[in-house]
Amino acid sequence: MVNQIGGVIINLKILKGENLAPKDRNWRNQAYSSDPYVIIFRKGKELSRTRTIKKSLDPVWNEAFRFHIGADEGIEQCMALSN
After folding, report:
1. Cα 56 to Cα 21: distance, rounded to the nearest angstrom
2. Residue 46 falls inside a structural domain
């Protein structure tokens, strides 16, 4: 546990994605699958990312992340799902 006065600890769990849009294309140029992952950003800086799930439109990550945010910092978060 991070023990700092005046901050907060954020526990974030990325569970899964469902019915994602296919981004990978086959030799006929047809979209059929994706290799998705999630990137966690804070103030434009990448904090962490999930593992990439190959060839899935319904990925299951079930990954946990923990971040300490100081009292003098905002707590807005941003995540991006990428292929």
Report:
1. 10
2. yes
